[in-house]
Amino acid sequence: MIGSFSIGFLRIGWIDVVDVLLVTALFYQLYKLLTGSVALKVFLGFMSLYLFYLVVKAAGMELLTSILGQFMSVGVLAGIILFQQEIRRFLLNVGKATSFGSRMRMFPWRREQEQERMNLTPFIEAAKSLAGKQTGALIAFSMASDLKFFADSGDLIDAAVSKRLLLSIFNKTSPLHDGAVIITNGRIKAARCILPVSENPDVPAALGLRHRAAIGSDGK
């Protein structure tokens, strides 16, 4: 084998090293994705059952291997159903990492241009007014992604940002107050948007859905 080396009785090639590193990186990303959610326990349980299946198969236990094999045959479909939210989040992260827009944002001058274009004064003033009235608000700023998937779940606005408009949206009598406002390119893209809710069991029970949505959408 070209470019191979030996460790004891094992002969390892560079392809094997790359293979192990890629698998390690994949499992690390899966762990980060599932950490703090109930899905992590389900995933660990499924992996434990799969390892047990490999052991009984290697031991030649045909009956138990057949039973577990039938379960594993539908494991992929069951995994897609159980982890649909995590899979969507993973694909969104992959899309953000490979998109042209996210690469352009890596350059310092690109970030400076976006920061200059974004006027935070209306948000600060609106937040102070809402806090004085003890009124909650949820605002999501799009970074590497334009959050179109979540914006489509609400009412499209595409308006310039102003303190008065933000206060009107989050007024308790407004039909748009129940949900999130999504900001894209310095403009209010949509309101009354539905964001994913965090399933982290460590989140205090006293926090409502709006707080859980803020935690669940972190990093998106």
From TrEMBL:
Keywords: ATP-binding, Membrane, Nucleotide-binding, Nucleotidyltransferase, Transferase, Transmembrane, Transmembrane helix. The chain crosses the membrane at residues 12-31, 37-56, 63-83. It comes from Hymenobacter swuensis DY53. It comes from the Bacteria. GO terms for molecular function: adenylate cyclase activity; ATP binding; diadenylate cyclase activity. InterPro entries: C-di-AMP_synthase, CdaA_N, DisA, DNA_integrity_DisA_N_sf, DNA_integrity_scan_DisA_N. PANTHER family: DIADENYLATE CYCLASE (PTHR34185:SF1). One of its GO terms (biological process) is cAMP biosynthetic process. It catalyses: 2 ATP = 3',3'-c-di-AMP + 2 diphosphate. Signal peptide: none annotated. Pfam families: CdaA_N, DAC. The keyword Magnesium does not apply. This is DAC domain-containing protein. Residues 84-220 form the DAC domain. PROSITE patterns: DAC. The keyword Plastid does not apply.
